[in-house]
Amino acid sequence: MLGLVKSAKRGQGKAAKATIKTPAKRGRPAGGGSKTKSVQALLGTGLSAADIAKQVGCTVGLVYNVKSKSGAVRRGPGRPRKSSGGTQLASFDSLEAIVRAVNSSGAESARMRKAIERIRVIVDEFL
Hints:
It contains 5 helices and no strands.
């Protein structure tokens, strides 16, 4: 009536009552990871990611995550570097392959010269 509020004695308020309850255990439950193991087992069978997800009862994203972490063939970060120069000399195994490449480039340059000559004739006719 006078505006005074009763207060609980120390150690008997809301905080004390909340600590009496047993707190939930944090972290993953013991024996977990069974979906991951199931996905790993099914990845070698050749099924699609959607089919594996249906069988295991998980998301397709989990299947892709397990697949990426399983050590399967991984792609590089991006485009391969350009080799120095126009031809890839490292890929030639023998002298014959090099000779063939030089001959083909010579033939191609001859074709290009002919095409340029034809274009020059056409342009000269219009001028």
